[in-house]
Amino acid sequence: MDETKTETSEVTEGTESETRHIEVRNLGPVSYLDIPVPPDGGLVLLRGPNGSGKTTAVRGVGCLLGDDTDYTRKRLKPKDGVVSGSVSGLGVQLHIGGRVNRTGKLTVESVAGRVGLGELVKPAGKNPATCDKARIKALAQLRGVKPDLAHFHHLAGGQQEFEALFADVQFTAPDVAELAEQVRKAFHAKKREQHSLRDRSQGQVVAKLGAMDEVDLTAECDEKLLQKLLEDSITARAEAHAQVTQSRQQAQQVAEASIALGKAKHDYSGPSVAEAREAVHKFNLELVAAADFFGQATEQLAAAQRNLEKTTAVADAATKRVTGAEVAARAAVAHQKALDGWQQTIEQVTPGMSTERLLEAFDIAETQVTRSHRAVEQGTAVRRAKALRKEADLAEAVALLHDATAKSLEEAARASDEVLSKLVSSAEVPVRDGRLVMKNTPRGETLLDELSDGELVCWAGEEYIDNVGPGGVTHLPQEAYQALDADGRRAMVRWARAHRVVIIAALVDEVFEEGQPPELRAEVVGGHTPD
């Protein structure tokens, strides 16, 4: 027998012997009610109109069977005008006054202190998902499963990994069903975080690829090589510029010398150097002749005094002409030297390319510098584009990693249902996305909440019998029983008798004699279906 079951015990000494009846006295609107407990099991219905005390009686039976929570105890009150009431049977007596006192021990199996059958068949809830959540919680209570995170550690790879992954999450679930839902939601939240990181990385990929759009990645991008080519082109341009400048300066010098030479030739009115030299020579001869004549005249002074004066005048004139000829000769020589200097300046200009050709060469050099600058800029762009390509590849790899992590988290979230299934359910009714699923039905795999009432009762009964056992007694709230259709009610009777389990439930019965107070009665249901 499961350790979570309530062990059967003998009647405590001093209590009444087992009568297989439960008696309710002076409880709420109930004055007295005898509830039979069939030894072979079956369904016992408390029938009566509204206000006759059905719910109160079922609640008293539940407290007797072990559902004696503070909530239940506070709802049990004696009949108006009576000091105390009681519920007794199956080895236990409840004395209900200002508080509820319990004596004795049950002589039957019951799990009323943990979960009621109605919580499996027709749990309270506004939607199917809420109902399944209540069923899972009830199954966990039946099996005594506690809300322990250790059940889910392996989903993250171990306790340390789990705690590291959810260091920012607080799990405060009161039961394992709620804990499983919190774990599943936590995994989904982490998955969304990974999707967000993935999307961010993919956005970086798009941005980086967009930034390198139209960049020719095959272009030269060696920074040192491109810088050397740029420096060489700048040097070539400087040399071309110097040649153009020198050419212009030489042209200016030639022009100035040509102008000076032409002006000198135009302005000079004296003899040429040859003419001046010939005149000097001629006058020197005349001077020599005059000197000879002067000597002769001197010798003949005595004889020709009169000729002396005449000869002296001739000598003076000749001297003057020699002096003038020498001055003219010196001027001619200076003029010739000036002409020779300007001519030499003109002739010293080294023949070479014309200034126009030099300007064309400079333009070519300038164009090459511009191209080199562009090549350096393009090389920078190519290197940046290649770096962006690497960054984009890395971002894409990171995006894939985040996507893979998100998928593993999604699998872990789904696996939380598998953990919950192993803890509280069976292989035939696993938990998926927080919902109970019946795998083998005539319609194939079906959500548990979509089963017929009869199928639900059979499933709930099989889950319940493992914990109650043959001869056990349980109770079913009025709203749960009344929510069953006819097939469900018949299935409950068949199941209770097949497993010798007694189910005490309630049903509204508005048929009673006029003038008589509403009567509450307990009936063992036969093979027919109670209306």
Written overview of the protein:
By secondary structure, the chain is α+β, with helices and mostly antiparallel strands. Among the domains are: 153 residues, Rossmann fold; 137 residues. Helix content is 57%, strand content 11%. The chain has 13 helices and twelve strands. The strands form three sheets. Strands 2-1-4-5-6 form a five-stranded antiparallel sheet, covered by helices on one side. A hairpin with a 2-residue loop joins β7 and β8. α7 packs antiparallel against α9, α7 runs antiparallel to α10 and α8 runs antiparallel to α9. It is rod-shaped. The N terminus is likely disordered.
Task: Write a concise synopsis of the structure shown.
By secondary structure, the chain is α+β, with helices and mostly antiparallel strands. It is built from 13 helices and twelve strands. Among the domains are: 21-116 and 468-524, 3-Layer(aba) Sandwich (Rossmann fold); 223-359.
Total helices: the number is: 13
- Secondary-structure element series: EEEHHEEEHHHHHHHHEEEHEHHEE
CATH top level of one domain?
Alpha Beta
Mean pLDDT: 80
Strand content: 5-15%
**Strand order within the widest sheet?**
2-1-4-5-6
